[in-house]
Amino acid sequence: MDAPVTVRSARLEDVGAMARVLVRSWQETYRGLMPDRVLDDPSLVDARERFWIAALVDERYRANRVAVAECDGAVMGVAMAGPPEAPEPGWSVHLYVLYVLAAHHGTGAGSALLDAVVGSHESAALWVADPNPRAQAFYRKHGFIPDGTMQVEDGVREIRMVRTSRT
């Protein structure tokens, strides 16, 4: 029987594991979409550790919600949401990060992480790689729909998906 997934608020002692999960998830998700030199950069884990430390302790991010998913005591998913950098009509929360290691897809970890950082009653938006049919289907299942906005970030085409407030 598979071990249960638990989701909790991230703590400073989690940043190393969070960084490794994020980098491995990027490698699993974006290989072929993002340059290998970026995905395989030996300094990427250290850079992501600095990112997570800032996300957890810097006053600029105090309104953000950061969560981890664990299985057998090991971090296998991360999520972060907070106020949008530039307020836009129609949504009040930006989902900045949601990654679960591929070996744990389908365990409910992604849904639990989403629920931990974005309330079911909150309007929210996110950027998702395109193509990334698995992630886009996951977000559709949770009420997000593409709003027609597109951008290219680090060479990756992304579409914005938005979920309006549900009461």
Q: List low-pLDDT spans.
A: none
Oligomer: single chain
- Estimate what percentage of residues fall within beta strands: 25-35%
CATH class of the domain at 5-118: Alpha Beta
Major sheet summary line: 7 strands, mixed
Question: At CATH's second level, what is the architecture of the domain at 5-118?
Answer: 3-Layer(aba) Sandwich
What radius of gyration results from the CA coordinates? 15 Å
Topology pattern, helix = H, strand = E: EHHHEEEHEHEE
Query: What portion of residues is helical?
Result: 25-40%
- Count of helices? 5
Instruction: Identify the overall geometry.
Output: globular
What does this structure look like?
Keywords: Acyltransferase, Transferase. InterPro entries: Acyl_CoA_acyltransferase, Bact_Acetyltransf, GNAT_dom. This is Ribosomal protein S18 acetylase RimI-like enzyme. Residues 5-166 form the N-acetyltransferase domain. The chain is an alpha+beta fold. It has a domain at 5-118: Aminopeptidase. It contains 5 helices and 7 strands. It has helices at 15-30, 36-39, 44-57, 109-117, 133-141; strands at 5-9, 65-71, 74-82, 93-100, 124-129, 145-153, 156-163. The protein has a 7-stranded mixed β-sheet, with helices on both faces. Helix 4 (109-117) links the parallel strand 4 (93-100) and strand 5. Helix 1 (15-30) packs across helix 3 (44-57). The chain is globular. It starts with a strand and ends with a strand.
